[in-house]
Amino acid sequence: MAESRFKFIAGSSLSPITPEPFIGGRPGNMTSMEHVMAIRPRWKTLLSLTFLSLAMMGSVARAQGIPIVTGQQWMASTDAEKKAYLVGIANLLDIERAYAYAGNTVNSNDIAQRFGKGMQGQTLDSVRQGLDSYYTANPTMIQHPVIETLWFQMVVPGQNKSQ
User: Which superkingdom is the protein from (predicted)?
Assistant: First the structure.
């Protein structure tokens, strides 16, 4: 109990804390500093949860602001921009696979595994050309997201070929 009656102030030595009178339900002979130390973890937890909640709400707000690339933007993009989009998807899938392998949670139904199986043998150029051909042949589908078109026009048929 004696060590709890001292505090460390940076650049000084230990100095005794004088117990202060406490009004309202402090248990036993607890000093005000001991009482503060006892409730501090609750405040830290509450503060941490508050910041976590705010961060999560901020992420949702940002996610809602991310535009979804449609066939219209796809067809207006240069070949380099199209490849950059496809590289971004490939990188995301690689990260997903790495986390699955690291956590030993690899499942054949995971989206990364299904994408890999469905896109087997494809190159960036073949995927780009396939999407270009699809949107050219189906102008009414130009408002559909590229990722949706990629999934239903290339990944799913590729999975069926692999089986």
Answer: Bacteria
Q: What's the pLDDT at 41?
A: 52
CA distance 80 to 107: 33
pLDDT of residue 4: 45
Write the single-letter amino acid at 134: Y
How far apart, in whole angstroms, are the C-alpha atoms of residue 62 and residue 66? 7
Positive or negative, the Cα torsion across 39, 42, 47, 50? Answer: negative
The chain-wide mean pLDDT, for the chain, equals 74
CA distance linking residue 39 with residue 99, whole number of Å: 38
Pair 154, 146: CB distance under 8 Å: no
pLDDT tens, 79-100? 999 999 999 999 998 888 888 8
